[in-house]
Fold this protein.
Amino acid sequence: MPDSRLRLPFVLTLLCFAACAGDNGTDTADASATPDTATEVDVSATPQFIHIVDAPTDDSSVPCVSTKSPGADIDAIRIFDDPSLSSVKATLSQCQWLEAGTRCDENLYDDASQAEGPPNGSPFDGFVSLNSGSIVCQWSSGQGPALGNVIQAIEMSSGPDREPYQIRLCNDASATTCGAFQNSTTPTSNFPAGSLLF
Ligand SMILES: [Ca+2]
Ligand SMILES: [Ca+2]
């Protein structure tokens, strides 16, 4: 029958198409597991925590006798909308110690909440001294960083005696799911959010 002869190749074509579609489906799944450049950073899951860690270069950089503000002295950290640094998007809130600073017995500036809000530090007040420890904070108004934003950290020291610190973004207050640490390069350091997002 002419119809049968025509129908068989047609059926085989359908079967082959189904098989090929299966292969293609697998290939598509593999491809989707490897995001392209535009989707490597998942900004839909904005990290709501920031971990700020003292990073003394050696023990002598946290003098316990000559100063009562051991380690990096964090005044404030804020998010700007873009590199022009003209519009503040958020400041820190709900700061608390994650690893208590223990390098020096005496720290007159151990109130983590002093890193919250806009900059207000003076040589005598308004900052938290990390004392070889670290603090975790959230962002005011729940406004976390996104690509294109700039995160500016303000540390009180100046000149060659600056006290280094590191920051990283986290998804939890225990800092178990975090991006990579970025090192401060100057007392006031500006970090492109893209270098901290994960
Ligand atoms: Ca200090
Ligand atoms: Ca402050």
Observations:
- The mean pLDDT is 81.
